Amino acid sequence: MADLLTDRVVLVSGGTQGVGAGIARAAVREGASVVVTGRRADVGEAFAKELRTLGSDDAVFVQADLADLDQARHTVAATIEAFGRIDSLVNAAGLTSRGSLLDTTPELFDDHVAVNLKAPFFLMQAAVADMVGRGAPGTIVNVLTMSAHGGQPHLAPYSTTKAGLAGLTRNAAHAHRWDRIRINGVNIGWTETEGEDVVQRRFHGADDTWLAKAAATQPMGQLGQVDDMAALVVLLLSDRSGVVTGSVIDWDQHVIGGLD
Fold first, then answer.
1. Using one digit for the tens of pLDDT, what is the confidence trace for 159-194?
2. What are phi and psi of 39, to 5 degrees?
3. Within 13 A of 57's CA, how many CA atoms are on the CB side?
4. Burial of 132 per CB tally in 10 Å (0-12, 13-18, 19+)
5. Between vectors from CA 46 to CA 45 and to CA 51, what angle results, nearest 5°?
6. Is 60 in contact with 48 (CB distance < 8 Å)?
């Protein structure tokens, strides 16, 4: 791929680390002007500086806690203020804290809804409103999870909210297909990120050998790689993906429904 997003303005929520950061880097390499959001100003500003060294001289960081709806909406407004429009949105932010059906509290459930479903809904609303208001096409990609198909028992609120986001992806894609706004989702499998390392150590007592052990259990001998996933997201954001909309793509090395 080369210059797939030239002159595009792309907002990536949760774009300062992990999967979101990989997508932001890939978008910059393909010619986009990129806005990223995150909760920590120090991390966000440092990452925006990194994006500028990659070629996006106008990269912007917007500090926001997406659990706060006003802050979430502000990220789209700040993008439009900075560039005059928004062409593409990537909802990459996600809360993955653990909880089963039996031990999830109402507070934990609400936290997941706020970040994983409510914020993406209203980010999409604001972005689509700008696109429709200008009579311009646009693209949105929602980063989902293979756990949206059912998921592990300890990921009950996470799986529930991401499954809801998959439904929203299809609903919004259908609603705005005549506006030439294409909306797709990617169900990512187990992926190697800094955040996953933290999760494995915090929730599962993992040590320094966990990644090698985990890779050995996978068909391809490795966990999913952020750069590979980011390339798919960039493709879906670009005209190269043609007319595709309303698709939720499984990006994983395990096949849902396949049995040994």
1. 999 999 999 999 999 999 999 999 999 999 988 887
2. -85, -30
3. 1
4. middle
5. 95
6. yes
